[in-house]
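User: Structure please.
Assistant: Input sequence and predicted structure:
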Amino acid sequence: MNSTPLIQLRQLAKTYQTGDVMVQAVRGVTLDIARGEFVAFMGTSGSGKSTLMNTLGCLDQPTGGDYLLDGAGVANRNRQQLAVLRNRKIGFVFQSFNLLARTSALENVELPMLYAVPVISRPERRQRAIAALEKVGLARRHDHHPSQLSGGQQQRVAIARALVNRPELLLADEPTGNLDSRTSIEIMAFFQELNASGITIVMVTHELDIAAYCQRVVVMRDGAVLSDTLNDQPRSALAEIMRLNDLAPAVKLS
């Protein structure tokens, strides 16, 4: 097993210039995230957690320090190289789902594979997209458009899209922010199942009850890490669903 942390940050910094003002969004963050961890980043608006998430996702580049993803430096790569890295290594799940409204669930899931290198054939794209939708429990909804799906179903399509290129790292930015409490727990149960299968998950959330499902909670303030705490006994989302169902048999989520 590869013991090198999947994510290594060393004195990572990100500074923006707004007019004549220099804004230090991230200030000297140093931390490792091991393969297979499930980590929540928390903090108030302006704490730097979203900027840090964008950096982890290779959507933005640091202005100082080092970021190593799977042992390889990220800072000096050009846009094309970063795009290839994102496509191969990282899956993204967002609060607003970001699905194409006039496109079926199946076509939405196929989308990341259109940019894959090497090229994935059309039959394989279709096969992998169907398998991803089956994994999130939407095998019978593959021809539905987003407007025909509930919020929870739309988020499941977004998760299937994030998984279709078989990433090592899943980044989730407020993935339950637009969902009701029960659906949020169902999504967290699915994340826990994915994490148990070996996928590393980093999630931004402002909800303490959602962070309680994670193995580790990193709190940020003013661009720096305020605390970094291991959660030895993460809450079980599946057990919570069973409780809500009056201890009915376990719900199969995949």
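Confidence is low (pLDDT under 50) at residues 250-254.
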